[in-house]
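In the previous chapter we treated chains in isolation. Here, by contrast, the input contains two separate entities that must be folded as one system, with a combined length of 1495 residues.
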Amino acid sequence: MQAQEDVEPTVRIREVKKDRVNFVLGNVDLAFANSLRRVMMADIPTVAIDMVEIETNTTVLPDEFIAHRLGMIPLVSANCDEAIRYTRDCICLAGCSFCSMMLELKVACDDDNTMEVTSAHLEVVPFPEEEGSQDPGEELSKRGEWFGHPVGKNDPNVPPVLITKIRKGQELKIRCIAKKAAKEHAKFSPCSAISFEYDPYNKLRHTTWWYETNVEDEWPLSENAKEEEAPRDDEPFDFNAKPNKFYFEVETDGSLGPQEVVMKVRLRPACCS
Amino acid sequence: MPDGSRRSKPPTSFNTIEREKSFRNPPKDGSTYNILNEFVTPHIESFNALFDDSGLPAGDGDGRGLLSLALKDIGERVVFDGNERTDSESGPQGWGNRMRVWIDQATIARPMVPDKDRTAIERKVYPAEARERLTSYRGRMTIKICWTDISGQQHDMMKDCGLVPIMVRSVRCNLRSMSSADLVRHHEEPEEFGGYFVINGNERLIRYLILPRRNHVIALIRPSFSNRGPSYTPYAVQIRCVRPDQTSVTNTLHYLQNGSAMLRFTWRKQEYVIPIMLVLKALVGASDKEIFEGIMMHDYENTFLSDRVELLLRSFKMFTMHTGQQCLEYLGDKFRVILNLPEDWSNAAQGTWLLNKLVLVHVESARDKFRMLLFMLRKLYSTVSGENCADNPDSPQHQEVLLPGSLYGMIIKERMEEILNNIRGSISSDVRNGVAVDFNDKRYFTKVLSKVNFDIGAKLANFLATGNLVSPTGLDLQQASGFTIIAEKLNWQRYISHFRCIHRGAFFAELKTTTVRKLLPEAWGFLCPVHTPDGTPCGLLNHLSRTCRIVTSPLSVAHIPVLLAAHGMTQPFAPSVDGRKNVCVQLDGRIIGWARPKVAAELATYLRICKTEGKMDVPVDLEIGLVPESHGGQYPGLYLFSTKARMMRPVKYLANNCDDQVGPFEQVYMDIACTAEEIESNSSHVEHDPTNFLSILANLTPFSDFNQSPRNIYQCQMGKQTMGTPSTALQHRTDNKLYRLQTGQSPVVRPALHNTYAMDSFPNGTNAIVAVISYTGYDMEDAMILNKSAHERGFAYGTVYKSTTVDLKDMKGASKSSTPTLHFGVGKDVPNTEEKMHPCFEFIDLDGLPFIGARLNAGDIMAAYVDDTTGRTKFVKYKGDETAYIDQVRLLGSDAGDSELQKIHLTLRITRAPVIGDKFSSRHGQKGVCSQKWPAIDMPFSESGMQPDIIINPHAFPSRMTIGMLVESMAGKAGSMHGLAQDATPFKFTEEDTAINYFGEQLVASGYNYYGNEPMYSGITGQEFAADIYLGVVYYQRLRHMVLDKFQVRTTGPVDPVTRQPVKGRKRAGGIRFGEMERDALIAHGTSFLLQDRLMNCSDYSTAWVCRTCGSLISLGYEDVSLGEMVVGNTGSLKPTGPGGEYCRVCRAAAEHQEELERQAMATGQQLQRPQADVMVAISSQNVLKRASKGGELDVVAVPYIFRYLCAELASMGIAVSLEVR
């Protein structure tokens, strides 16, 4: 066996799009690859609406349901590390402009048609500054133009997220406070799905392909099989082999770019430490 | 099938846009789902039939409603004033003047605003108002009472009979024939179909009940009949005869050991038997020869029969009555006492009346009754001889349905009859008591009427609200309660099943034997074999099959006898018919002729062709029951049924490929092929659809033909317990409890009927990604693991709506008079200034009503009212223990809208996100409890990054064999990938063309494994599992059983005042009994500390003083002394006490007594003896908490309180208990 310790980890990006990246991670062990997956799913902080103050809600949906829907709306969280603090690390009492974003939703329908309240109605408003906020943080300057806005608000090609529908005479007046967090709730996860695969030919025999009559007919090979060499029929089973090529596709909900999601992960493979 | 060969085009679209459109703009002409209106027609049309303007076809009658027919049947009552003037009508008999009283007409109006209210512009009342105001939806009933005065002059008067509950969407309902758009405008669902009553805001309906088939003679062999009296045998024939007004009388003909027969009937819950000969003679004055020939019918060789007929004739000789007139007079004389007929009627008239009203009431003419009785006798003798078998009254062949409207009509009829009887009784008691009775005086009559209770409406409302039938006659029914049920809007499936359920009768529920619960082949197509609850009501509470109809409109069949006679039937009056060669032809229990068996079969075929093709005006709902000749089988004949309340179902008649309707009586003798492929040479019919025998709910189980049958039964139950979408008009509902799933979805895999029955308007579950894998162990024993992220994103999020009312009338301090002393509001005694704000203003406003959206915790204020007399404000508190939000506040006024606000209705919203312990189920009877919410990163995932929402254990499948669920999983996965609504109708696949292949091909086409497996990776290590995992999409239902409603846990809490042991009951924060067997388990297990904890520390732990000397627990006394002092008693000796002054009263008394005795003994020299306790108990020193160190003889021990109580109780019986402290 070749000594893996000598080989540097490799990343080969096969495709990058606005909301997804497809790459092949090589020369790392399984634990590292899975850790990467887990961290991308759960440990990348983003900003999401966490507290909702409802002033008026005359829609058909109950308060808590609207609050839940608001929480699920992805907000632009680029450069989260520097642009916003965790509230728990902030010196403020209950939230300030350094650790929170404030968004407002004020909609009333006076039209005869049913109106759709969407994430496009969410407006970022400046945080009411407290007296003598002595903390000269740099966070505000690190924020991008659309930081904290609902994803796609600046893009006419992205349809906004529907929150509720209202009819004539109904009104929604809501103030939301968005905070940075990572694990606490599914809404803070920037990823919608991460596909992860290794060993498309099952050469390592980690799994068994159960079949009724014919393996080839019943088990279509995945796309990633093209990357690897098909096993020959007479190839002996190498029981010492370990997986070292991992096929990833990371899809995000837009709050962070795929690049940021992958790059933010601060992991160090054992070989580099 | 991949080639699409056999499948008629499956519905592949979800019709989302169409549904959205019709939901936003319901159709203005007609309803969104017409089939829903069809399936409640038996309810509505049977109610409509009460009225003359029912809109039903007239049939053979004059189209009058049941109420008019009932009035005709009630007739008139006659009273006499006892003035024996010779010029009066009844002079000679000396009864006095004759007054006739009758009800001429009865009308029921639509629900209207009372006249007292002058301000309302819309005078109609709609059901939504009754529902929201928690009142009843009812219309005014009036009757016209007529009577004659002395001169025979007729007078009449309208009388108000109160407000009668009206069936929603019936002909008396203001929603009648409204379109969906109009319904929505009147705050109903667009799918509202009616069929129920609104009673105190609850929707209640009269459940279908199975009754014996009307006007058909059934043979019975019941051993219990022999207990009826001497010489009775188990043999009888029975017929339930129904009058045109749908009231019925059951006549039973019992066979006696001496060969004769007795006719049994019931009059006012009392049974009477008369010799059949008496009836036969009284009816037509038949001679013995006529009776003999009528029964024998030329079958003279049959000595069995002739012997019995001879005995029958002979047995009547002892009565020495020869003519019909004599018999009538005899009958009249005997029954005069109970019948309450006019006193001036002759015995013969009374006898005639009796035969008219109680013997074979379904036919009018005496000759028809006579013929029918002879037929019954023939059938009876034939049964006794064993030529034919007994009929099974549990078989749907001999059953029909009690329709809600018919029952309602019967009750109204009986009430009206009671009104007349009461008037009569009132006048005759006046006559008896010597009160001045003047038939010419209208004021007198009014006075009599004022004494009679006319409130039929209240009686009916009470009947509907309780389901209890208060009746002097019993209405020929076997039960007196359980007629009505609440139509619970738990979810749409449960709601619609209420209208299709049919009960066997409360009487049968108590029966030990299980034969009545059996699923009989005769029920095929009429009662669903799948949809019945398991447990106590199993097999008794059935549901109608999907296509089963109940005939509700009268048919016109008056021409049928002529038609049959023209085709070879012998007329009934033919002088000599050979009973050996002919079978009887009956139409609705009337003998219309005789025919040879071959001719009868031809007649049946002819009629069937006529009715299917609509020729000769033969109605398609006519049931043609041809019973062929057999040995030991059913009694042969051609029995035609055209009356209401029969079950019928559509099939196709193969002879002419026309649609036919068949009933359960005739179906037994037919060969109905299930599918077109199964037609054989002797098949007579073919089903329109092989799934027609299933009920609506059973039809909705996807791929139910793949499942083990009990699982489909379970699904029918669980579908009805699902937290779904109860209603789209939630804003206008006041149900006690509503469960709502916020994130309902349309299932990907659904049977074709899913759309037909508006299931998508009321979603009932969620499409979940389900992995079948044993992971983490938290999915053992039917538990399931929920993905935490799915949960956080709102998977299966539910809400419970609860109703409460605050009625100031029921509060303490409410005045009984009309002006209320309690008013909603907050008084001046409650501070509401800036600096001093009462906490109640967090929840309520100055008007005393809560804010919408206010969040209530246990004990929070939800309303306030001011008491005029005290001037103080009182608060109403929220009693539940869960956080609730005020969803709606309703101010409820009075009917006329003229009184002050005294009652409010609050809808509370309780959020119920799924928690560990909540119950979920797929649609295949696979229920499970959520055991963990597992973090998404630790969940297994597939190569494409899919993570299951739900993990279930593979062990759920082998023993339950719910292959349907596996197929659904595959189909759901393929459907999701291709965007198809998968058709899951049962019986669509065959052995050659399997579901697995069909969906497997689809899966391969989208890049998945043919059998739905996927390699999955452990979320924790990232390693591929050694086995591939079955992963797919299954529609999951969240059931309404939630831990939050059920958990019961306590350490300490409320205790019983007497025993100081924990109380029971969840509501009182009580405990669950830790009983003897549980105790045994802990002892056997050796967990003594736990035992101590459960039975002592957490139960009735107590400390007690025990006397070391005498061992008594109950002899504690206190001396009012300071620490450790000794008291000198009156005898001068020292008395020991403890540090607190405690001492043992027994020992001290004994010591004093001892001293006394010693002194005496000193004097007399006698031996001393200490008294012994009756019971000695040793207590371990472990339980001694504290030794009284400084003197005194009392120790403190820990004992269960109940032991102290026992000691006290024993002491009261003179038994002393002594504790030995070791």
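The domain at 46-182 of chain A is CATH 2.170.120.12 (RNA Polymerase Alpha Subunit; Chain A, domain 2). The helical segments of chain A are 30-42, 63-71, 80-83, 139-142, 215-218, 258-264. Compare these points with the single-chain example from earlier in the chapter.
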